[in-house]
UniProtKB/TrEMBL annotation:
Protein name: UDP-glucuronosyltransferase
One Pfam family per UniProt: Glyco_tran_28_C
Keyword Cytoplasm assigned: no
Keywords, in A-Z order: Glycosyltransferase, Transferase
Signal peptide start-end: none
Amino acid sequence: MRKKRVLLLSEGFGSGHTQAAYALAVGLRALNPNIQARVIELGNFLNPVIGPLIVSAYRKTVSTQPKLVGMVYRRQYKKSLNRFTQLALHRLFYNHISQVISQLKPDLIVCTHPVPNAVVSRLKRLGLPVPLYTLITDYDAHGTWTSSEVTKYLVSTSLVKKKLTDRGILGSKIEVTGIPVHPNFWQTHDRVELQAQFGLKPLPTVLIMGGGWGIMYSDNLLEYMTRYREDIQLIYCVGNNDKSREKMLADPQYQHPNIKVLGFTKEISKLMDVSDLLITKPGGMTCTEGLSKGIPMLFYEPIPGQEEENCEYFIASGFGEMLISTETIDKWFKLILEPYASVQFRNSLMTKRNQQYNPMQCSRAVLQLMQ
């Protein structure tokens, strides 16, 4: 009997979309080892030369013109990608996608980014019989995610479901599953062992991240945190931003035994376990990983649009606060310097997490839909 096949399509515009796809694939295989799950970043796969250039241009636009990104996001908020745009995307960048699907013969397709979602929607209009599931990887529902050809929407919260139903999408086509995270974030690691692994002291610890593209070195608030370096350990994760890492390592302000400056790492789940506070750009995946660990979060410089919506959700749910001033840093750093208060607060977040989030729910939902 042939194994069931799931094709998960993403894009490289930020790392969260693809991370969600991989997390779902791992979850599906954990529930049913007979499932074959394949993850593809479609643009890079079909156009290995042009694809990275487009992602690089988008990254530069987000970094240098965030207001423009926000304006475009809001202007198109209620609009799905029209058929002309879908046709243009297909002919310019995705003209071989039909061959890929034909070769892989998936039983269902899950898209974790709006662009492959639109491309597959067009193929379904042309007769592709494979069910299409759309996993929205933020805490908002932009119009570009929507298409009448989608078989089922998998969404993060009931609020996102309401936003879709308000646009006329049937509630029966939407399931609240949460955003899947990798199994590494489902388990808790021993803190003492982690301190030994990373060369850390038994001190309150703050993890500072900037998402897949790294933090901005020039941020004054990030520098202000170093004033606490005698009493609090600071772990700066700058991702793939090698220039920022080199500058920070050369700066005497960051040259201290209680300060670690890391580049890209696959150990984020362990770093969250060994930390008492997470300071991050509010990407949907990073926020969900923080939620799964029950770690309090401070959010800085959200990209206008979906990251602002992510912030709003997690702040309203009691999992975080906007980092807007040095007073915010003082408040939270003083909290984690009080061991009892810090532990009590994190325990309360774990209770909320258990009430609101099940890391296996999305994988179970897809598995059930396959039967």
